[in-house]
Amino acid sequence: MSTQRGERAMDRHTQRELNPLICTICERGCLLGQGKAGACGLYERRDGQITEILSDHYLAVCPISIETMPMLHYFPGNKFLQISTTGCNFDCPGCISTVIVREMPRHSKALSHLSPDQVVKKATSSGCMGIAFLMNDPLASLPTFLRVATLAGTRGLKVGCASNAYFTAQTLESLLPVLDFINIGLKGFSDESYRACGATAGMAPVFRNLACLVDAGVHVELSVIYSRDKKQELSDLAQRIADISPRIPLQLMRFIPFEDAGMAQEPSIREAEDFCRQLRSRLKHVYLFNTPGTQYLNTVCPGCGKEAIRREFYGPMGAKLLANLPAEATEVRCDFCDKLLDITGSMATEIHQEDDFQGGYPFTRALEMVEAMLIAMGVRQQKYVVRAWEHLLSRNGLKTLHRSVQQPLSYIETVRYFGRLIGTEIQTEDLACFLEAKLQNVSETLKGVKHRPRVYYAMAKPLFYINGGRMENQLVEFAGGISLNKQLPPGGRPGRSLSVERLNELNPDIIFISAFLSNSVDDFLAECIELGIEVNAVKQRQILVHPAPGWDFGSPRWILGLLYMAQALHPERCSYDVIAEAQAFYQRFYGIDFSSENINRSFSKPSANWHWQGKREQTAMSSSKNTRDRFTFARKLNYK
């Protein structure tokens, strides 16, 4: 009898272990089986419990200024320790973090193990005010984040995160005692927008959590992607936010299409600034990101209406404080009318400068640049890209990479370096020799040229210039021009603003607009005239934009940009058919036709339709199966 009872008990235990468990970390409610993870891939059922698969492992740990996160109304300019892992509970179209949330394996060698105590000690030894979890969602590493947050709080550090806030009530209850600030990344203001990201319960949980966070006294800022098809939806969203509090800062992220997103949904600079201005009639603090040179990153004093705090574009999704810093930490007031501003905490007395590719989303751009090289070498399996990433990050190679991608010749040697690393020497040499041959052809064609046009390189808006040391300006000089950007002080990421007077002094003959964060020639020219820019390039309408994104930085396709620039600067010598050159390049290195309609802002993927071998089908099947299993199991339990 005792043997039978033991067998029955064992059978019940075995059955419990085999039964799926609904994950309570986020509102997706994935089914976790034995050895089976949910949508984020980072939790499984173990001994009947929801267990984090890889705890206390980080992809990035480094000091940042808080605007890099970005947070704009919380201790402006102060230094925080960024922590990032991998994975995300959402899968949003065109996500800028795809390389770390979908393509970086959870057990990658690029991740470093740090105990909560080590993380907190790094924050204090670096002079950080607190710790901020960003780039991927803390919901993918909730137990890890909670351990760090709890310990950090006992050491007097502020703790915050950037999250989609798809918390269950249970998760939010665990976060509230340890959370000081949060940037909630909204996906829109409709269930449809949320379900497009995999949020099966729609948008309601987010707005429930938003209200709870505000009521609990957590400093809340909101961010949302602004694409052309979301304008009315975001107008309605602004009204909903205003009903909670018109003083909650809203960060409008101008949509930059990456991965499989199309260019048609990218708002122009002018459209985005107009929309930002409209939303400011409903909310006190609306800011525009991904728009170099915009004035809509500045805080307007609610008292006198003047720009009380100035900021500048600092890479995708980031900003940098430009304000005159106080001698000591005090409450933040308007310099013009002395009104107390809607700022939590004091302003920094000095500004932290991040290392190259460190801090915020430029880290993801670095990984994508490596990916771009490998894809052009013919790599079609992600495991080879991961091997290169792991090698780069385990050797602290970001600074070296940043230097090497700024010069055509060192870029080519970097291509060879990664090609040797993953064992694709033949394909690598084909790409490297092609780039060298085109460089040599341009050099010989322009040999002995006497007149070199004066060239100014802008990003997005006329007064934001790209640093003189960057690849774009090296290409200008290879193409037979004089780079005026090299006469300007370096700084910023990837540049900074100058005055109308200084640009008029430079008097460029030709202006190129960046192929990454770009602008239409008509809008750019109209703004030049509005600002009083009276240079030869404006008078002669010599303002040029590349035929396609990715032609001047971040991808081997810069060689196509060089041909375009050489022909533009010296049509008397160069007669390249750049579209035919692009077609040949695409066929040779990507095995597809060149089509400007299918290209987006991605550095690595040559087309919005390009996918890793087998990846698209695998992802779709996995997502569909998890959702189907969840609802089948829910019906068995009579869930409604």
TrEMBL record:
Residues 73-292 form the Radical SAM core domain. InterPro entries: Aldolase_TIM (IPR013785), AmmeMemoSam_rS (IPR027596), Organic_radical-activating (IPR034457), rSAM (IPR007197), rSAM_sf (IPR058240). The lineage of its organism: Bacteria, Pseudomonadati, Thermodesulfobacteriota, Desulfobacteria, Desulfobacterales. Pfam families: Radical_SAM. Its cofactor is [4Fe-4S] cluster. Keywords: 4Fe-4S, Iron, Iron-sulfur, Metal-binding, S-adenosyl-L-methionine. One of its GO terms (molecular function) is 4 iron, 4 sulfur cluster binding. This is Radical SAM core domain-containing protein.
